[in-house]
Specification:
Elements: H1 4-16, H2 24-35, H3 41-62, H4 68-73, H5 75-78, H6 83-93, H7 96-112, H8 118-131, H9 140-148, H10 156-161, H11 167-182, E1 198-204, H12 209-215, H13 221-224, E2 228-233, H14 240-248, H15 270-276, E3 280-285, H16 294-301, E4 316-319, E5 325-327, H17 329-342, E6 349-355, H18 376-397, E7 401-405, H19 429-432, E8 436-441, E9 454-460, H20 462-475, H21 482-491, E10 498-501, E11 504-509, E12 512-516, E13 522-525
Parallel strand pairs: 1-6, 1-7, 2-9, 3-6
Antiparallel strand pairs: 2-8, 4-5, 7-8, 10-11, 11-12, 12-13
Helix pairs in contact: 1-8, 2-3, 2-8, 14-16, 17-18
Length: about 525
Amino acid sequence: MGSWSLYFLVKLGLHVAGLIQLDVPLNLLFAVALAWPWAHPGWRRAWRFLAWPVAVALLYHDSFWPPATRILSQWQAISGFSFAYLVELVGRVINVQLLVAVAMGAALWWVLKQRLRLATWVFVGLVAVAALPSQHGGVTDLAQAATGADGTADRAADRATAPLLDAGQLDQALQAFYDTERGKILRLPKDGNVPGFDLLILNICSLSWDDLAFAGLRNAPFMRRLDVVFDRFNSAASYSGPAVMRLLHGTCGQPAQHELYGGAVADCYLFRNLEQAGYRPALLLNHDGRYDNFSTELRRDSGLGLVPEQRFDAAVAMSSFDGSPIRDDGETLTRWWSDRTAAASGVPLAMLYNSITLHDGNRVPGIQSLSSLETYAPRARKLMADLERFAALVEASGRPTVLVLVPEHGGAVRGDAQQIAGLRELPTPAITHVPAGVMLIGMGERRADGQEPVHVEQTSSYLSLFTVVAALMHGGPEVATPERLTEVAQALPPVEWVAENDKTIVLRRGPHTYVRDFEGRWRTLDSAP
């Protein structure tokens, strides 16, 4: 086997560290082929040539990266990334720590190969991996991120005793979930009474509880002003398009991702229902919406029927991961609010604001030398300050308003052993566990700064969120009290935790979290939402 033993020893180390998942039969077959005493010189030369692409393909197969077919299917979107962002992504994959580890491993291999038959240890290691039970279905820090976000107690003891479901049971559970969710419809009032408040929905890209903790903003002033906090809200998607579609279908249960496109039940279109309830709808972006046909998708599949607005009079705050301009959140919201309220004539407004300020790969003027991971925290601080100032502006206007925070998904700023920072192919709890909440402005007495908000502790969905909004629409100021909001929150039925990205699905059953990959195979994750 010669120097190829280094290849297998490094992979064994990566497997033990939880950075890859060895396919033992394929690796054993490759190791045997490398150690085989080929008699014919031509065969030996041919095998030496073929071994390199086989080794690369096998390493990719063992990694947690999505299959090559997935990357090829997304090539048009990837090709839209700016050159600076592509360089940054390469740097995350090939980092200094990994190169140092490989160099140290090579040095150790060079010393040991003089004294030991390392090929023998390769086979011993592969057999040991096959014989011993896997100790890492997921990643430890992912569990910490997901359970630590809302103070949920550690569930390690439960995981040790609860039985794991097999693939057939998980497929049945997933189908049962979708069947149940299809029957859920929320009815908004349509009795002709004009709603007593404006509804402003802040749809922020790349903001999870884990990201907030990373940026040190869990107790930001804006977050403290929320009157209802959904502790375990599941955005159910890890990419923008499906996440926004799920929000805009928020008066129905959670369908499979492919059911969000090509038409839906009329009662499922959130803004169509709000318009029938007396609202004047609006859709505002702080970006051009061209990447991945975002704006086109909104017009076609959301039931909104509006061309997204932009505020070209707002300053450009940064450039996007595709090089397009991103407008300042504070100026965009302030200018839109001033113009719309001046022309509202008593008609209540229902606005969806979509911001990509926190998206991975954005470049901030003046600090281009820093990666987007390094600028995430200051960008998040600026965004939170802008949202707090906007809430104060709305309050000063005297217009009763329900402000809803519902991020699209997290930014995966920390990354984990299975996905580099910024990669969101697996919709893990650390990515889809987002800080959703409701703020009441000009509706009754403002909650004191030190008073706790109402917490929705069970797993929640978009339907749960808009059930609270519907209760306020039906009951008005009488519901806008901590006591009544607590009653509404406690009456919300729990929802199973299912998140989806294309063919990849994360499902929570009991104390265990499972993921189904692109090939339809289930495995466990060491995390819980």
